[in-house]
Amino acid sequence: MAQTIAARKVKLHDLKTKFGLQQVHDDAFFTEWQHDLPELTVSEQRSLDRIKQNYLYLLEYPVMESIVKMVVLSPLLDLAGFYEPPFRVDGETSIQVAAEDEGDIIQGAIDVVVIQGQLWVTVIEAKNSEFSITKAIPQALAYMLAAPNSEKPAFGVVLNGSEFLFLKLVPGEAPRYAAFDLFSLLNRGNNLYSVLRCLKRFRSLLET
């Protein structure tokens, strides 16, 4: 019997059994962020240092999802140029994706979706600081399966404020996905440098 599943409750096992989703462990699958990453200006590095400093101060208390998006995500999208033409940013975008064989439907609302024309170019799922980032991965992948362009890869970012993980999904009869390196503000230095370089690299690929 067909059922409707809330995206926030979906598990990786659900996506594998209902949609044939397969994880890829080959480094060659995720070449977009392995080469030709742009360098950052001194001004950008200072902005990222301030974002990290602000977040770590707020981390003394539980940091809710809305604060994660305001303090960390919004300035990152600005620095990456996603608030400029030809991109458009929507929040709380409702989606649903159906498993053809079983008729089951997964539905929910994406935290942030970056759109170029009529195409989704990336999906961003934010959680509060007390959530493990692994809890956001199935939800983000479910949204990526629902992307309107079924011929091109879908990209996603999941974050809980202190951790960031990039995802890539290639659609098809047996969709495939992989996760890039985990970046953390709890590491030495400032991993936001790498996060922004990945976002800027992605932006340049979309403009070519």
Q: What features would you describe in this structure?
A:
The longest helix has 17 residues. The protein has one domain: tt1808, chain A (Alpha-Beta Complex). Helix 2 runs antiparallel to helix 3 and helix 3 crosses helix 5. The chain contains 5 helices and 8 strands; from the N terminus they run βαβααβββαβββα. Strands 1, 2, 3, 4, 5, 6, 7 and 8 form an 8-stranded mixed β-sheet that branches. Strand 7 and strand 8 form a beta hairpin. It is α/β, with parallel strands linked by helices and about 210 residues long. Pfam families: HSDR_N (PF04313). This is Type I restriction enzyme HsdR N-terminal domain-containing protein.
Summarize the helices and strands and which ones pair or pack:
Elements: E1 4-6, H1 12-19, E2 22-23, H2 42-58, H3 65-80, E3 87-98, E4 105-116, E5 119-126, H4 137-145, E6 154-159, E7 163-170, E8 176-184, H5 192-207
Parallel strand pairs: 1-4, 2-8, 5-6
Antiparallel strand pairs: 3-4, 4-5, 6-7, 7-8
InterPro entries: Restrct_endonuc_type1_HsdR_N
Pfam families: HSDR_N
Domain Restriction endonuclease type I HsdR N-terminal: 109-169
